[in-house]
## 1
Amino acid sequence: MSGDEVTADSVSESNGVEDPSVSSPPPQALPPLVAYVEALGKYPHAVAIIIATSLGLNDVRRRKNGLAETISEALAAPRAAERLILGLDHSSRLAIGIFALAEAYEWSTHGLFLTLQCLDVDVRDAIVPLLECGLIVLETKDEAEVLAWNPKLDPASWPRSVLRLFPGAMSSARTTLPLSEIPNSTDTVRLVRESDGLEPILRLAVLWQRVSEAPLRQTQSGLLYKRDRDRIEEDPALVGPIADAIEPLPDPAAFWLALGRSVGIIEAEAGTERIIAAPATYWEDNAFHLPQMVASRWLSLTRWQEQGGAIAAETVGELALPNIRAACLLWLAKLEPDQWCGVEDLAAIFDRLAPGWARPLLDSVARDHLGGDLGGLEGILLGTGYQLGLIRLAEEVPSTRRVVQLSLLGRYVVGIGPPPPPRPTFDHFLFVQPNFEIIAYRQGLNPRMLGELGRFARWGRIGAALELVLSPASVYQSLEGGFSEPQLLEFLTKHSQRALPPGVAEAVRTWSSRRERVTYFASATLVEFASPSDLEAALVFWPTGRADPVRIADRLLLVEDESAIPFTRLRLAGSRDYRRAPEACLEVEADGVSLALDLGRSDLLVDAELARFADESRAGLRSDGRRRFVVTAASLLRGSTRGVSAATLSRWFPQRTGGPLPPAIRLLLAAATGTAPPLGTSRPIVVRTASAEWLDGLLQHPLTRPHLGDRLGPTAVIVPEESLETLRRVVEELGLKWESTEGPPTPLKRPTVGK
Amino acid sequence: MNLSSGTARIAVKLHKQVSLVRTAEPMLAEELLARKNLSKLVAGRLSDTVLLVRSEEEDALLDELRRMGHTPRVVR
C-alpha cells in the first residue's frame, strides 16, 4: 500500500516551495522482490530456519548466509506458492487475498489488522501462518525488533511496520470472502444509479496530458514544487466538480495524482526530481484494463482518504479509513446480484467488529469515534466507489433508505463475476466546431478513445459533455507522441456528427507541416565517407524502402535506422559513440602551434571545436595523411570573440591532445590578451673561469656569491652590472687576479673577467 | 587513416548517438544561429541545414526552439 506515498500529500501542504538546495531526487522504492528478500534477510537466523523448515528445506540449518535468497527461490518454484495457499485455512487465505485484490505487495501491519477485524477475521489466526511459511514477511528495523516481537501477543502490540507479500504469490492468491453473512434486502428498490465509470479515466487523461505538456518537479521529500502544485490544483479540467456526484471527493488534485502514480500513468523519472507522463503507448496497452487497475490501486491508496483528502506531510501516523475500502467490497461481494445492503447496515457491522474503525488515524484513541461514522463510509461507497463504477446506489422501497450493491465492474474486480460487457458506443460522438473547439459526448466514449482524444486536443471543461480544443501546441504534442496527422484527421472525421469543417482540417495540416521545418535528432547515426564519390557509389546499392538515408553533407549520410546500413558492401574504418567522453585525437607537433588530426579517432565535434580557434593548414595533409591545423594569434583572437578563453583551452587540450596547453600557445594567448610583461634586452657581463671548479668556488664563497647572477654554464656566470666593481674588489681582496678581455675568453688558471 | 584505401568495399566511419538539428532550409539554420541563447548550444555546423549540438543540452535546446515559436519534430 505505497503507491501514493509521494504525491497524495504533495498538493495539500503549504511547504514544497522551490528550494534550490534540494536538488537530489526522492529515493526510489525497491522492486517488490528485492524489498521482500531484504526484509527476510533481517530476520534472526533461528526465525529464518523455521520458515525454511516449513518449506521443506531441511539442509539449511548450518547455513549462515543467503538463507533469505534460498527461501525466496523455494517459494518461486513452480506452483510452490499456490500449494502453500491451498493448504492455508480460510482466514489466512482471506488475508493474502486482500493483497491480491489491491494488487499491493505491501500493507501496513495495523492497517491490515483493521481490515481483517472489519471482516470478522482473527488477526493472529490469519497472519501467523502466512509469516511461518514466508508468504509474507514483517519488515523490521533489525533482528532485535523481530526477537522482541511475539506473534502470540495481542496484535495491537506488534511492531508498527509493513507486511510484505512474496511477489510470486500475487498471481496465486484469490479473493476470499468473509464467512459471516451480511444483512441484505431483496425488497423493491427504485432510482437505481450507477456512474458511467469514466470520471477517473477522464481525470487521469487530463493529468496525463498536463504532465506530458510539462513534467512536475518534486523535492527530495516527495512534495511538489509550489509552481507545479498550483498548476495542478488550479486546473479546472482536473479539479472541477464532477457532474454525476453523490458524495464529493475531497482534495481531488491529490486523489488524481495519487491514483495516476499508482497506475503508472505518471511516474518518477529515474535519477531526476521530475514526474513525467507515461509514453502515449500507455493508452493502447492499458486502456482496456484501466477501470479495473484504477479500482485495485484505489484500495491501496493510504495517504489520501474519503474524509479530509490527503494526509498532511507532518502528520505522524497512518490513516484508518483507507483500510475499510477492501472490507466494504468484500462484504458487498457476499450479496447476490439482486440483493442490496443499507449503508447503515454496513456501518453497524464495522461498529460491532472493529469499534473505532472510523477514527482519523490508526494510532488515534478511538473514544470519540466508537459510535461509528457514516461520513467516511458514504465517502467510500458513494464517493470514490461510485465514481470508479464499482458501486450501484438505489433507494429502498418503502423505507427510502440508501442501499448499495456491487456493479458488474465491482463484482469483476472482487473476482466473483465475469468481465463487464464493453460500453455501448456510437461512432458519431464528436462535434467539431470551426473555431477548433470540440464537444465530445460521454455516451460514445470508452477509455481508449479518451486516451486518443487527449493525445491531440487539449482538455477543457469536464462535465456531462466534454470540451476540448485543437491548437498548434496540441497537434504538435500529438505528433510528438506518435499520433500522425492522417490518424488525427481520420479520428475526427470518423467520429464527427457533421463533416469536418474545412478550416479545421487545413489548420491541422498546416500545423503538422510546421513541425517538419525543424527536426531534432537525439541520437542519430551518421555514416561518413572518404569522398563525395564514395557516398554516391554507396547510395546506388543502399536498400530503399525502409528508412532511406538522408544526405546532410557531401560526405555524410544521416541514417535513422542503423540496422538498415548495408555493412556487407561497406568496410567499417572507425566508429565513434558520442555519448562517451571525447577522445584524444590530436597530436601537438614540435612547434607547439601545429596540431595533426588522427582521422581514425576523431569525431565531428573536433572539427567544430578546432574551427573556433585554429585554421586548417594550407600546406595540405601531412605525409601520414593527417590533416593539420595551426593556431595563430589571429585564430586565437577569433576564438576569444567566440568565448574561447585560456581556461577553455586549458581544459580542452588535455581532452583532445592528451597533454597540457603548449607554451607556444600560452605565449600567443598572453600576447592576445595583453597580459604578458614586456620582454627586456641587455648585454650581460659574463665572468669566465679556467675551470668549473673555479666557478664553483666563486659561487660558494660568501663574499663573492652575493655579487653573481645566473650561471650560464660550467665556466660562465653572469655578473649584474651594478655588482661588477664590488666583485672585482672582493676578488682582488681574496688574492685572485682580475683581468678584463674584449676578445674570446682564454682559459686561465686564475679567474678573469670578460665584458 | 585513409577511408578510401584498400578493398572493393567502401570504407566508412560511423558516428553514433550524434545529436543534431536539421532545418528545412538554410535560412532557418541561419535564424537559429543568430539567436544568442541557441547558438551557444550549437557545437558546429555540418552543412547549410544541419547543426551539430551537444546531447547534454537537449532540454535547453528544445525549450529555446519552442520559445522561438518552432515546433521541432523530435526523433529518438
Note: Residues 586-673 of chain A form one domain.
## 2
Amino acid sequence: MTVYKRTPLYPVHKRLGARLIAFSGWEMPVEYSGIAKEHTAVRTAAGLFDVSHMGEFEVLGPQALDLIQFVTTNDAGKLIDGQAQYSAMAYPLGTAVDDLLVYRHNSEHFMLVVNAANTVKDFEWIESHNRFHAAIEDITDRVTLIAPYHFTHGKVLDADAIVSRTGYTGEDGFELYFAAEHSESIWDAISETGAPLGLLPAGLGARNTLRLEGKLLLYGNDMDGTTSLLEAGLGWIVKLGKGEFIGRDALLRQKQEGVKRKLVGFEMLGREIARDHYPVVIDEQTVGHVTSGSPSITLKKNIGLAYLPVDYSSIGTRFHVSIRDRLCDAQVVPTPFYKRRERDSA
Amino acid sequence: MSPDDLLYTKEHEWLRINGEIGTIGITDHAQKELGDIVYVELPKIGDRFDVSEAFGNVESVKAVSELFIPVSGEVVEVNQELATVPEKINQDPYGSGWMIRIRLLRKNETAGLMSAKEYDEYTKGEK
C-alpha cells in the first residue's frame, strides 16, 4: 500500500469537499468546484492554492551564497536581502536537475523552493556539491506555503510569515510561507475575506491550465534531465558570466554552437485537443512529443508545448500532432499564450 | 438516483431501448467524475460496433475517456449539437446530452447490463 503525505491543510480540503489525487507522493486537491470555474476565478478575481507540497530548504553559513552560486544557473549574487529569483540547477551537460526559487534573507541565510517530485533528489544533489560547509536543512514538513520577486517578513493574523510576490499562474500573486500550525486559521481568513470578491479555492487542475497559458514550465513535462536549459528557452536564467557553476561549460558551448531543438508553443487548428505525450509529426516523421497540452480555458483554444527541430520552430510553422492515429494540424504561435493586462486599480 | 427506465454499463454508459432503436449517453455519475467536458468524438452514421467496443471519446479539461457501446448496433443518428456545445453532457446527461442512436443488431445482449438500482449500488461501492 502506498502511503501519501498530506499537507497541514488536508482537513480543510476534506471539509471543502475537494477531489483529491496522488501527486508526487502527496495527496493533493485537484479541484474544488471545477477546473474551469477555478481557472476563471483566478483570471478575473482570485484563487487560493495549497502548494505546501513544494520542497523548501534552508541554506545557512558564511559560504551559503557560494554553494548556491555553484549549483544554480542564475546569478544569486545579484539578490539583496528580501529578494527572490527564479533559477535552475543544471547537470554537467546543461540539462535540468530542477527549476527553483532562491530567496535571500541575508548574506548567510537563503531559502530554496523546489518541485515536490524532486525534493529528495535536489537535496542529495546540493549536499553532494557542498564543499562550502554550508548547513542545508529540508524544512518542507514544517512549513505551509499558500499561493516577489520581492518578499518581506511580516505577520499574517499574528503568525510570522514570509510574504512573497511570486506565483505560477501568469497573474500577479502572493505566496505565503508560515509555520504549519497556523494553516487552517490563515486559509479560512483569506477565504472569508476574498469570497465576496470572487476568490475561490483552486486545485492542481486549474494550476496546470493557468501555468500553461502563461508558458510557465513544468519540470518532468517541459524540461528534465534530458533537455538543456537553453533548448527549454530558459537562457534568461543562465548567467554564463557569473563565474563557475555546474553545467556552465556545456551551456556556453551550446550557446556558441546553437541548439538543435527548441521548446515552442503551439495551437491546434481544429477542435482536437493535444495532450501530454502525443507524438509530434513533421513530414511523416515523429520528431518529438507534446510536453504539455490542454484546452486553454481563457483563450478557448487548444494549446500546448513541444520540442521542435530549430528549423521548424519559427512562428507560423505548421506541423501535425498525432491524436489517436489521426494527424491533426497545429501551428507554432507566440508565447506566453496569455499575458496579464494591468487591471484598473480603482 | 439514476433513471429507472435505462440500462447501465460498468463503464458508466446508459442505454434507452425503444423498439429496435437504442439511445446511448454517459451517466450523471460519469459526467461528475470527468468534470467540465470540452470535446467529444463520436462515430459516423452507418458505423457498426460489437458489444463493448469503443465507439468514441469524451474529453474533460483534464483527461480523455473512451466510450464503450452497451450493446451491438449500427449508428443511425449522432447528436451533432455536442460538437459545439459539449457541456450539454454535464448539464443534462440523460436528456440533451445523449450521444448516439443505434439500431440494435442482436437480441439478448442486455442481460449483462445493470438496472438503475444495481448501477447506484455499483457506483456507491466504486467511490
Note: The longest helix of chain B spans residues 116-126.
